Predict the structure of histidine kinase.
Amino acid sequence: MKPITILIVEDELIVAHSLREALQDDGYEVLSVVDSAPAATRALEQTKPDLVLLDITLKGPIDGISLGQEIQQRYGIPIVYLTAYSDPETLERAKKTNPYGYLLKPYRVQELKVTIEIALHRYREERDERKHLQEEATIARKLKQEFLTNIKHEIRTPMNAIQGFCQLLQYEIQEEPSRSYIVSILESGNVLMKTLEDIIELSRLESGDMERSFQCFDPRSLLSEVGQMASAKAREKNIALVTAISPDLPPLIFDELALKRILSKLLDNAIKFTERGRVTIEADCRAVEPERAIELTISVRDTGIGIAESDRARVFEPFSQADSGLTRHHGGIGCGLAIARGLTEYLGGRLELESEEGEGSLFRLVFPRVEIVKDNEWIDRLLAIPTFVPTRTTTPHLTVVRDLPAPEIELLEHLRVREREIWPKITDTAIVGEIREFARELQRLGREYHYLPLQEYADLLLKQSLEFDLEVVKTLAAFPDITCALAREFE
Protein backbone atom coordinates (compact mmCIF):
# COMPACT_ATOMS: atom_id res chain seq x y z
CA MET A 1 0.00 0.00 0.00
CA LYS A 2 1.23 3.48 -0.87
CA PRO A 3 2.54 5.28 2.26
CA ILE A 4 0.92 8.49 3.49
CA THR A 5 2.95 11.53 2.38
CA ILE A 6 3.56 14.51 4.67
CA LEU A 7 5.10 17.98 4.28
CA ILE A 8 6.70 19.40 7.44
CA VAL A 9 6.77 23.20 7.83
CA GLU A 10 8.84 23.90 10.96
CA ASP A 11 11.40 26.66 11.64
CA GLU A 12 13.20 24.85 14.49
CA LEU A 13 15.79 22.56 12.92
CA ILE A 14 16.03 20.09 15.83
CA VAL A 15 12.22 19.73 16.09
CA ALA A 16 11.95 19.30 12.32
CA HIS A 17 14.48 16.45 12.19
CA SER A 18 12.88 14.81 15.23
CA LEU A 19 9.51 14.93 13.47
CA ARG A 20 10.96 13.45 10.28
CA GLU A 21 12.52 10.50 12.15
CA ALA A 22 9.39 9.82 14.20
CA LEU A 23 7.13 9.87 11.13
CA GLN A 24 9.42 7.71 9.03
CA ASP A 25 9.69 5.18 11.86
CA ASP A 26 5.88 4.89 11.81
CA GLY A 27 5.81 4.29 8.05
CA TYR A 28 4.96 7.78 6.79
CA GLU A 29 6.82 9.32 3.83
CA VAL A 30 8.15 12.82 4.51
CA LEU A 31 8.32 14.61 1.16
CA SER A 32 10.12 17.70 2.39
CA VAL A 33 11.03 19.78 5.45
CA VAL A 34 10.86 23.59 5.04
CA ASP A 35 11.03 26.52 7.45
CA SER A 36 9.11 29.37 5.72
CA ALA A 37 5.89 30.11 3.85
CA PRO A 38 7.57 30.76 0.46
CA ALA A 39 9.51 27.49 0.72
CA ALA A 40 6.30 25.64 1.61
CA THR A 41 4.49 27.15 -1.40
CA ARG A 42 7.30 26.06 -3.72
CA ALA A 43 7.18 22.54 -2.28
CA LEU A 44 3.40 22.37 -2.76
CA GLU A 45 3.74 23.48 -6.38
CA GLN A 46 6.05 20.53 -7.06
CA THR A 47 4.16 17.78 -5.23
CA LYS A 48 0.89 17.32 -3.36
CA PRO A 49 1.24 15.67 0.07
CA ASP A 50 -1.60 13.93 1.87
CA LEU A 51 -1.16 16.20 4.90
CA VAL A 52 0.81 19.26 6.06
CA LEU A 53 2.29 19.46 9.58
CA LEU A 54 2.49 23.19 10.20
CA ASP A 55 4.14 25.26 12.92
CA ILE A 56 2.57 28.65 13.62
CA THR A 57 5.90 30.46 14.04
CA LEU A 58 7.90 30.49 10.79
CA LYS A 59 10.81 32.36 9.29
CA GLY A 60 9.84 35.49 7.39
CA PRO A 61 6.84 37.84 7.59
CA ILE A 62 4.17 35.17 6.90
CA ASP A 63 3.18 33.07 9.91
CA GLY A 64 1.79 29.54 9.92
CA ILE A 65 -1.86 30.56 10.27
CA SER A 66 -1.74 32.80 7.18
CA LEU A 67 0.02 30.00 5.30
CA GLY A 68 -2.59 27.51 6.54
CA GLN A 69 -5.38 29.64 5.12
CA GLU A 70 -3.64 29.79 1.74
CA ILE A 71 -3.10 26.01 1.73
CA GLN A 72 -6.79 25.39 2.42
CA GLN A 73 -7.97 27.81 -0.27
CA ARG A 74 -5.48 26.98 -3.04
CA TYR A 75 -4.68 23.31 -2.52
CA GLY A 76 -7.41 21.83 -0.31
CA ILE A 77 -4.84 19.79 1.65
CA PRO A 78 -5.57 18.96 5.31
CA ILE A 79 -3.31 20.69 7.83
CA VAL A 80 -2.41 19.89 11.44
CA TYR A 81 -0.94 22.67 13.56
CA LEU A 82 2.01 21.68 15.73
CA THR A 83 2.83 24.61 18.00
CA ALA A 84 3.70 25.83 21.48
CA TYR A 85 0.97 28.51 21.34
CA SER A 86 -2.31 27.81 23.14
CA ASP A 87 -3.59 31.31 23.95
CA PRO A 88 -7.23 32.12 23.02
CA GLU A 89 -6.31 34.68 20.34
CA THR A 90 -4.06 32.23 18.46
CA LEU A 91 -6.64 29.47 18.77
CA GLU A 92 -9.38 31.73 17.32
CA ARG A 93 -7.19 32.67 14.34
CA ALA A 94 -6.25 29.04 13.78
CA LYS A 95 -9.87 27.82 13.89
CA LYS A 96 -10.80 30.14 11.00
CA THR A 97 -8.50 28.13 8.72
CA ASN A 98 -10.47 24.91 9.43
CA PRO A 99 -7.51 22.76 10.54
CA TYR A 100 -7.86 19.01 10.92
CA GLY A 101 -5.79 18.93 14.11
CA TYR A 102 -4.02 21.11 16.71
CA LEU A 103 -1.16 19.53 18.66
CA LEU A 104 0.80 21.34 21.37
CA LYS A 105 4.55 21.08 21.86
CA PRO A 106 6.19 19.22 23.41
CA TYR A 107 4.34 16.35 21.77
CA ARG A 108 4.47 12.60 22.29
CA VAL A 109 5.01 10.39 19.25
CA GLN A 110 1.86 8.36 19.92
CA GLU A 111 -0.21 11.56 20.19
CA LEU A 112 1.27 12.75 16.90
CA LYS A 113 0.35 9.52 15.12
CA VAL A 114 -3.20 9.50 16.53
CA THR A 115 -3.70 13.16 15.54
CA ILE A 116 -2.51 12.48 11.98
CA GLU A 117 -4.71 9.40 11.57
CA ILE A 118 -7.81 11.17 12.92
CA ALA A 119 -7.12 14.17 10.66
CA LEU A 120 -6.77 11.99 7.55
CA HIS A 121 -9.86 9.95 8.44
CA ARG A 122 -11.93 13.10 8.87
CA TYR A 123 -10.57 14.56 5.62
CA ARG A 124 -11.40 11.41 3.63
CA GLU A 125 -14.90 11.28 5.07
CA GLU A 126 -15.51 14.91 4.14
CA ARG A 127 -14.00 14.38 0.67
CA ASP A 128 -16.21 11.34 0.05
CA GLU A 129 -19.25 13.23 1.31
CA ARG A 130 -18.49 16.15 -1.02
CA LYS A 131 -18.09 13.76 -3.92
CA HIS A 132 -21.37 12.06 -3.05
CA LEU A 133 -23.16 15.40 -2.81
CA GLN A 134 -21.70 16.52 -6.13
CA GLU A 135 -22.87 13.31 -7.78
CA GLU A 136 -26.33 13.75 -6.30
CA ALA A 137 -26.40 17.38 -7.44
CA THR A 138 -25.39 16.33 -10.96
CA ILE A 139 -28.15 13.72 -11.04
CA ALA A 140 -30.65 16.25 -9.67
CA ARG A 141 -29.68 18.82 -12.31
CA LYS A 142 -30.03 16.21 -15.03
CA LEU A 143 -33.43 15.10 -13.73
CA LYS A 144 -34.57 18.71 -13.47
CA GLN A 145 -33.44 19.39 -17.03
CA GLU A 146 -35.20 16.27 -18.31
CA PHE A 147 -38.32 17.19 -16.35
CA LEU A 148 -38.39 20.72 -17.75
CA THR A 149 -37.77 19.44 -21.26
CA ASN A 150 -40.62 16.93 -20.91
CA ILE A 151 -42.89 19.61 -19.49
CA LYS A 152 -42.00 21.83 -22.43
CA HIS A 153 -42.99 19.15 -24.92
CA GLU A 154 -46.11 18.17 -22.99
CA ILE A 155 -47.26 21.79 -22.92
CA ARG A 156 -46.13 22.58 -26.45
CA THR A 157 -48.30 19.92 -28.12
CA PRO A 158 -51.68 21.01 -26.70
CA MET A 159 -50.62 24.67 -26.87
CA ASN A 160 -49.88 24.32 -30.58
CA ALA A 161 -53.34 22.87 -31.07
CA ILE A 162 -54.93 25.69 -29.04
CA GLN A 163 -53.06 28.38 -30.94
CA GLY A 164 -53.60 26.66 -34.26
CA PHE A 165 -57.36 26.45 -33.87
CA CYS A 166 -57.47 30.01 -32.51
CA GLN A 167 -55.68 31.23 -35.61
CA LEU A 168 -58.17 29.36 -37.76
CA LEU A 169 -61.02 31.00 -35.85
CA GLN A 170 -59.53 34.41 -36.60
CA TYR A 171 -60.48 33.93 -40.26
CA GLU A 172 -63.99 32.78 -39.49
CA ILE A 173 -64.93 35.12 -36.64
CA GLN A 174 -64.69 38.82 -37.40
CA GLU A 175 -67.19 40.33 -34.97
CA GLU A 176 -66.21 41.74 -31.60
CA PRO A 177 -65.75 40.89 -28.78
CA SER A 178 -65.23 37.29 -29.93
CA ARG A 179 -62.24 38.21 -32.09
CA SER A 180 -60.60 40.03 -29.16
CA TYR A 181 -61.05 36.96 -27.00
CA ILE A 182 -59.22 34.87 -29.60
CA VAL A 183 -56.36 37.38 -29.74
CA SER A 184 -56.11 37.28 -25.93
CA ILE A 185 -55.89 33.48 -25.99
CA LEU A 186 -53.08 33.62 -28.56
CA GLU A 187 -51.15 36.26 -26.63
CA SER A 188 -51.53 34.35 -23.37
CA GLY A 189 -50.26 31.19 -25.04
CA ASN A 190 -47.21 33.03 -26.33
CA VAL A 191 -46.49 34.41 -22.84
CA LEU A 192 -46.78 30.93 -21.35
CA MET A 193 -44.37 29.41 -23.89
CA LYS A 194 -41.92 32.30 -23.48
CA THR A 195 -41.95 31.85 -19.69
CA LEU A 196 -41.30 28.13 -20.05
CA GLU A 197 -38.44 28.79 -22.48
CA ASP A 198 -36.86 31.20 -19.98
CA ILE A 199 -37.03 28.67 -17.14
CA ILE A 200 -35.44 25.97 -19.31
CA GLU A 201 -32.69 28.30 -20.52
CA LEU A 202 -31.92 29.41 -16.98
CA SER A 203 -31.71 25.77 -15.90
CA ARG A 204 -29.27 25.02 -18.71
CA LEU A 205 -27.10 27.96 -17.73
CA GLU A 206 -27.01 26.84 -14.11
CA SER A 207 -26.06 23.28 -15.09
CA GLY A 208 -23.55 24.37 -17.76
CA ASP A 209 -25.50 22.45 -20.39
CA MET A 210 -24.97 25.05 -23.11
CA GLU A 211 -23.22 24.92 -26.47
CA ARG A 212 -21.44 27.82 -28.13
CA SER A 213 -22.08 28.35 -31.82
CA PHE A 214 -19.53 30.73 -33.30
CA GLN A 215 -20.09 32.05 -36.79
CA CYS A 216 -19.40 35.08 -38.98
CA PHE A 217 -21.98 37.86 -38.86
CA ASP A 218 -22.37 41.62 -39.16
CA PRO A 219 -23.07 43.03 -35.67
CA ARG A 220 -24.57 46.20 -37.14
CA SER A 221 -27.23 44.15 -38.90
CA LEU A 222 -27.85 42.20 -35.70
CA LEU A 223 -28.27 45.37 -33.64
CA SER A 224 -30.62 46.79 -36.25
CA GLU A 225 -32.67 43.59 -36.24
CA VAL A 226 -32.90 43.50 -32.44
CA GLY A 227 -33.95 47.15 -32.43
CA GLN A 228 -36.68 46.49 -34.98
CA MET A 229 -37.97 43.57 -32.91
CA ALA A 230 -38.26 45.82 -29.84
CA SER A 231 -39.65 48.85 -31.68
CA ALA A 232 -43.29 47.71 -31.52
CA LYS A 233 -43.22 47.51 -27.71
CA ALA A 234 -41.51 50.90 -27.56
CA ARG A 235 -44.17 52.47 -29.79
CA GLU A 236 -46.95 51.04 -27.61
CA LYS A 237 -45.49 52.97 -24.64
CA ASN A 238 -44.60 56.04 -26.73
CA ILE A 239 -40.90 55.53 -25.96
CA ALA A 240 -38.19 56.56 -28.41
CA LEU A 241 -35.81 53.76 -29.40
CA VAL A 242 -32.44 55.13 -30.49
CA THR A 243 -29.40 53.28 -31.86
CA ALA A 244 -25.85 54.65 -31.93
CA ILE A 245 -23.57 52.12 -33.62
CA SER A 246 -19.92 52.83 -34.34
CA PRO A 247 -19.12 52.75 -38.09
CA ASP A 248 -15.84 51.04 -37.16
CA LEU A 249 -17.62 47.93 -35.88
CA PRO A 250 -16.32 45.08 -38.09
CA PRO A 251 -17.86 41.68 -38.94
CA LEU A 252 -17.29 39.27 -36.06
CA ILE A 253 -16.76 35.59 -35.34
CA PHE A 254 -18.98 35.10 -32.30
CA ASP A 255 -22.13 33.43 -31.03
CA GLU A 256 -24.70 35.51 -32.90
CA LEU A 257 -27.78 33.79 -31.46
CA ALA A 258 -26.59 34.13 -27.86
CA LEU A 259 -25.71 37.80 -28.36
CA LYS A 260 -29.12 38.40 -29.92
CA ARG A 261 -30.75 36.69 -26.95
CA ILE A 262 -28.81 38.85 -24.47
CA LEU A 263 -29.67 42.09 -26.23
CA SER A 264 -33.34 41.13 -26.52
CA LYS A 265 -33.50 40.51 -22.78
CA LEU A 266 -31.81 43.84 -21.99
CA LEU A 267 -34.09 45.75 -24.36
CA ASP A 268 -37.21 44.04 -23.02
CA ASN A 269 -36.14 44.97 -19.49
CA ALA A 270 -35.38 48.58 -20.44
CA ILE A 271 -38.70 49.11 -22.23
CA LYS A 272 -40.68 47.35 -19.49
CA PHE A 273 -39.41 49.67 -16.74
CA THR A 274 -39.43 52.91 -18.75
CA GLU A 275 -42.66 54.91 -18.78
CA ARG A 276 -41.41 57.95 -20.69
CA GLY A 277 -38.32 59.13 -22.48
CA ARG A 278 -36.09 56.85 -24.50
CA VAL A 279 -34.10 53.65 -24.67
CA THR A 280 -30.71 53.88 -26.38
CA ILE A 281 -28.57 51.09 -27.81
CA GLU A 282 -24.89 52.00 -28.19
CA ALA A 283 -22.17 49.80 -29.68
CA ASP A 284 -18.46 50.50 -29.92
CA CYS A 285 -15.17 48.66 -30.12
CA ARG A 286 -11.44 49.06 -29.70
CA ALA A 287 -8.64 46.98 -31.14
CA VAL A 288 -6.88 44.57 -28.79
CA GLU A 289 -5.05 42.68 -31.55
CA PRO A 290 -4.77 44.62 -34.82
CA GLU A 291 -6.75 42.93 -37.62
CA ARG A 292 -7.50 39.96 -35.36
CA ALA A 293 -9.58 40.87 -32.32
CA ILE A 294 -11.49 43.70 -30.66
CA GLU A 295 -13.02 44.51 -27.32
CA LEU A 296 -16.75 44.77 -27.98
CA THR A 297 -18.90 47.06 -25.84
CA ILE A 298 -22.68 47.29 -26.20
CA SER A 299 -24.79 49.41 -23.87
CA VAL A 300 -28.53 49.64 -23.30
CA ARG A 301 -29.47 52.89 -21.58
CA ASP A 302 -32.97 53.85 -20.42
CA THR A 303 -34.69 56.76 -18.70
CA GLY A 304 -36.80 54.50 -16.51
CA ILE A 305 -37.35 54.05 -12.80
CA GLY A 306 -33.73 53.18 -12.02
CA ILE A 307 -32.44 50.76 -9.41
CA ALA A 308 -31.49 51.56 -5.82
CA GLU A 309 -27.91 50.74 -4.84
CA SER A 310 -29.12 48.16 -2.32
CA ASP A 311 -31.02 46.29 -5.06
CA ARG A 312 -28.41 46.26 -7.84
CA ALA A 313 -26.95 42.86 -7.03
CA ARG A 314 -30.37 41.30 -6.48
CA VAL A 315 -31.75 42.17 -9.93
CA PHE A 316 -29.37 39.64 -11.48
CA GLU A 317 -30.65 36.83 -9.27
CA PRO A 318 -33.15 34.41 -10.87
CA PHE A 319 -36.85 35.06 -10.17
CA SER A 320 -36.05 38.41 -8.59
CA GLN A 321 -36.88 42.06 -9.20
CA ALA A 322 -35.73 45.15 -7.35
CA ASP A 323 -39.19 45.57 -5.82
CA SER A 324 -41.72 42.76 -5.52
CA GLY A 325 -44.44 45.30 -6.29
CA LEU A 326 -42.91 45.76 -9.75
CA THR A 327 -43.66 42.13 -10.57
CA ARG A 328 -47.36 42.72 -10.04
CA HIS A 329 -47.28 45.96 -12.05
CA HIS A 330 -44.99 44.98 -14.93
CA GLY A 331 -45.37 41.20 -14.99
CA GLY A 332 -42.67 38.66 -15.72
CA ILE A 333 -40.96 36.10 -13.52
CA GLY A 334 -37.70 37.98 -13.03
CA CYS A 335 -35.43 35.79 -15.17
CA GLY A 336 -34.48 38.19 -17.95
CA LEU A 337 -31.42 39.80 -16.40
CA ALA A 338 -30.29 36.49 -14.87
CA ILE A 339 -30.34 34.91 -18.34
CA ALA A 340 -28.58 37.92 -19.87
CA ARG A 341 -25.80 37.82 -17.28
CA GLY A 342 -25.49 34.02 -17.46
CA LEU A 343 -25.14 34.04 -21.26
CA THR A 344 -22.70 36.96 -21.11
CA GLU A 345 -20.42 35.22 -18.62
CA TYR A 346 -20.71 31.95 -20.54
CA LEU A 347 -19.37 33.77 -23.60
CA GLY A 348 -16.45 35.19 -21.61
CA GLY A 349 -17.86 38.67 -21.09
CA ARG A 350 -19.25 40.69 -18.22
CA LEU A 351 -22.48 42.62 -17.69
CA GLU A 352 -22.06 45.89 -15.82
CA LEU A 353 -24.79 48.01 -14.26
CA GLU A 354 -24.90 51.73 -13.56
CA SER A 355 -28.11 53.14 -12.15
CA GLU A 356 -29.64 55.80 -9.97
CA GLU A 357 -33.10 55.44 -8.53
CA GLY A 358 -35.48 57.61 -10.54
CA GLU A 359 -32.80 58.47 -13.12
CA GLY A 360 -32.70 55.37 -15.33
CA SER A 361 -30.22 52.54 -15.81
CA LEU A 362 -27.29 51.62 -18.01
CA PHE A 363 -26.49 47.97 -18.72
CA ARG A 364 -23.12 47.57 -20.39
CA LEU A 365 -21.96 44.39 -22.14
CA VAL A 366 -18.19 44.03 -22.38
CA PHE A 367 -16.53 41.20 -24.29
CA PRO A 368 -12.75 41.65 -23.82
CA ARG A 369 -11.74 39.69 -26.91
CA VAL A 370 -13.87 38.99 -29.96
CA GLU A 371 -12.34 37.74 -33.18
CA ILE A 372 -13.02 39.81 -36.26
CA VAL A 373 -13.48 38.69 -39.85
CA LYS A 374 -11.03 39.95 -42.42
CA ASP A 375 -12.59 41.62 -45.44
CA ASN A 376 -11.74 38.86 -47.88
CA GLU A 377 -12.98 36.17 -45.48
CA TRP A 378 -16.29 37.99 -45.10
CA ILE A 379 -16.75 38.30 -48.87
CA ASP A 380 -15.83 34.66 -49.41
CA ARG A 381 -18.35 33.64 -46.77
CA LEU A 382 -21.13 35.68 -48.38
CA LEU A 383 -20.35 34.25 -51.81
CA ALA A 384 -20.33 30.73 -50.40
CA ILE A 385 -23.87 31.01 -49.01
CA PRO A 386 -26.36 29.53 -51.50
CA THR A 387 -29.73 31.18 -51.93
CA PHE A 388 -31.37 28.18 -50.30
CA VAL A 389 -30.12 24.98 -48.70
CA PRO A 390 -32.63 22.28 -47.76
CA THR A 391 -32.28 21.05 -44.22
CA ARG A 392 -31.56 17.37 -43.80
CA THR A 393 -34.12 16.08 -41.37
CA THR A 394 -35.91 12.90 -40.50
CA THR A 395 -39.03 14.74 -39.37
CA PRO A 396 -41.97 15.34 -41.70
CA HIS A 397 -42.43 18.46 -43.75
CA LEU A 398 -45.79 20.17 -43.56
CA THR A 399 -46.81 21.91 -46.77
CA VAL A 400 -50.17 23.64 -46.71
CA VAL A 401 -52.10 24.61 -49.84
CA ARG A 402 -55.16 26.59 -48.86
CA ASP A 403 -58.56 26.57 -50.59
CA LEU A 404 -57.58 24.39 -53.53
CA PRO A 405 -59.98 24.38 -56.47
CA ALA A 406 -60.07 21.74 -59.18
CA PRO A 407 -57.87 20.23 -60.39
CA GLU A 408 -56.72 19.78 -56.78
CA ILE A 409 -55.34 16.25 -57.17
CA GLU A 410 -53.12 17.21 -60.11
CA LEU A 411 -51.55 20.10 -58.21
CA LEU A 412 -50.85 18.02 -55.11
CA GLU A 413 -49.26 15.31 -57.21
CA HIS A 414 -47.18 17.95 -59.03
CA LEU A 415 -45.86 19.18 -55.69
CA ARG A 416 -44.95 15.67 -54.59
CA VAL A 417 -43.17 14.89 -57.85
CA ARG A 418 -41.24 18.17 -57.87
CA GLU A 419 -40.07 17.65 -54.29
CA ARG A 420 -38.88 14.11 -55.00
CA GLU A 421 -36.91 15.42 -57.97
CA ILE A 422 -35.23 18.22 -56.02
CA TRP A 423 -34.53 16.55 -52.67
CA PRO A 424 -34.62 12.77 -53.06
CA LYS A 425 -34.31 10.92 -49.74
CA ILE A 426 -33.71 14.15 -47.84
CA THR A 427 -37.12 15.09 -46.52
CA ASP A 428 -40.33 13.29 -45.73
CA THR A 429 -43.16 15.57 -46.78
CA ALA A 430 -46.75 15.56 -45.67
CA ILE A 431 -48.86 17.64 -48.04
CA VAL A 432 -52.36 18.51 -46.96
CA GLY A 433 -54.91 20.24 -49.13
CA GLU A 434 -57.02 22.16 -46.66
CA ILE A 435 -56.19 24.35 -43.69
CA ARG A 436 -58.39 22.46 -41.19
CA GLU A 437 -56.71 19.24 -42.23
CA PHE A 438 -53.40 21.00 -41.59
CA ALA A 439 -54.42 21.80 -38.02
CA ARG A 440 -55.45 18.20 -37.40
CA GLU A 441 -52.17 16.96 -38.90
CA LEU A 442 -50.16 19.28 -36.68
CA GLN A 443 -52.05 18.12 -33.59
CA ARG A 444 -51.57 14.46 -34.54
CA LEU A 445 -47.81 14.73 -35.12
CA GLY A 446 -47.03 16.84 -32.07
CA ARG A 447 -43.29 17.03 -32.80
CA GLU A 448 -40.66 19.69 -33.20
CA TYR A 449 -39.91 20.81 -36.72
CA HIS A 450 -37.25 22.98 -38.25
CA TYR A 451 -38.65 26.07 -39.90
CA LEU A 452 -37.69 26.85 -43.51
CA PRO A 453 -38.40 30.02 -45.54
CA LEU A 454 -41.83 29.86 -47.16
CA GLN A 455 -41.28 31.80 -50.37
CA GLU A 456 -38.01 30.13 -51.36
CA TYR A 457 -39.38 26.68 -50.61
CA ALA A 458 -42.40 27.30 -52.79
CA ASP A 459 -40.35 28.80 -55.63
CA LEU A 460 -38.05 25.80 -55.65
CA LEU A 461 -40.93 23.36 -55.72
CA LEU A 462 -43.07 24.97 -58.35
CA LYS A 463 -40.38 26.79 -60.36
CA GLN A 464 -42.69 29.72 -60.77
CA SER A 465 -43.63 32.93 -59.01
CA LEU A 466 -46.47 32.58 -56.52
CA GLU A 467 -48.84 35.23 -55.29
CA PHE A 468 -49.25 34.60 -51.60
CA ASP A 469 -52.06 35.54 -49.31
CA LEU A 470 -49.75 37.36 -46.87
CA GLU A 471 -52.09 37.08 -43.89
CA VAL A 472 -52.31 33.33 -44.35
CA VAL A 473 -48.53 33.08 -44.59
CA LYS A 474 -48.06 35.10 -41.41
CA THR A 475 -50.58 32.95 -39.60
CA LEU A 476 -48.96 29.71 -40.62
CA ALA A 477 -45.46 31.03 -39.95
CA ALA A 478 -46.49 31.83 -36.38
CA PHE A 479 -46.52 28.12 -35.59
CA PRO A 480 -43.12 27.45 -33.96
CA ASP A 481 -43.14 23.78 -34.97
CA ILE A 482 -43.76 23.99 -38.71
CA THR A 483 -41.00 22.97 -41.08
CA CYS A 484 -42.61 24.76 -43.98
CA ALA A 485 -46.02 26.10 -44.81
CA LEU A 486 -47.07 26.99 -48.37
CA ALA A 487 -50.17 29.11 -48.80
CA ARG A 488 -51.70 30.24 -52.07
CA GLU A 489 -55.02 31.69 -53.09
CA PHE A 490 -56.40 30.59 -56.45
CA GLU A 491 -58.76 32.64 -58.56
Summary: The first helix runs from residue 13 to 25. Confidence is low (pLDDT under 50) at residues 378-439, 441-491. The first strand starts at residue 5 and ends at 9. The two ends are 89 Å apart (CA to CA).
